[in-house]
């Protein structure tokens, strides 16, 4: 059964490990230097969101980060991608946290299509990300 638990700082290493494995699989458009940049910057943002781990029984499936009604982070351990966990987590967040906004890397077409399949639509796009890096961001709304 899929459950969510609030994270503590003791869980941050687990979150960062999941992020790194997931981003290596899904963010192949990042340069090696930018991958390292994000890897180093993410820990600074973990305290700015409602951060949760998602488990199926004892196995940690992934994590999500929410700020108000925006899904800021949703990363799954690559071993659990493609098994319906992302859909279950997103549906729970929409129904229980009223998520209605998501930003996604435009080049991450699988993620972009995933959110569109779940009823989000493109509202706008920026040519660079929030750090001024050359990675377009698609803004999605419900």
UniProtKB/TrEMBL annotation:
Extract the CDD domains matched here: NAT_SF
Keyword Acyltransferase included in the entry's annotation: yes
- Keyword Oxidoreductase carried by entry: no
Give the matching Gene3D superfamilies. 3.40.630.30
The UniProt record lists the N-acetyltransferase domain at 1-142
Molecular function, one GO term? acyltransferase activity, transferring groups other than amino-acyl groups
Annotated keywords: Acyltransferase, Transferase
InterPro entries for this protein:
Acyl_CoA_acyltransferase, GNAT_dom
Q: What is this protein called?
A: GNAT family N-acetyltransferase
Report the source organism: Vagococcus silagei
What's the source species' lineage? Bacteria, Bacillati, Bacillota, Bacilli, Lactobacillales
């Amino acid at each position: 059964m899929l459950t969510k638990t609030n994270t503590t700082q003791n869980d941050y290493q687990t979150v960062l490990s999941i992020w790194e494995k997931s981003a290596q699989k899904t963010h192949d458009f990042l340069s090696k230097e930018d991958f390292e940049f994000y890897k180093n910057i993410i820990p600074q943002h973990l305290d700015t969101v409602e951060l949760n781990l998602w488990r199926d029984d004892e196995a940690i499936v992934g994590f999500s980060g929410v700020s108000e009604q925006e899904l800021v982070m949703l990363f799954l351990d690559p071993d659990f991608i493609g098994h319906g966990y992302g859909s279950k987590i997103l549906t729970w967040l929409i129904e229980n946290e009223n998520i209605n906004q998501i930003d996604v890397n435009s080049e991450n077409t699988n993620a972009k299509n995933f959110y569109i399949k779940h009823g989000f639509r493109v509202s706008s796009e920026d040519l660079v990300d929030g750090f001024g890096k050359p990675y377009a961001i698609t803004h999605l709304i419900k």
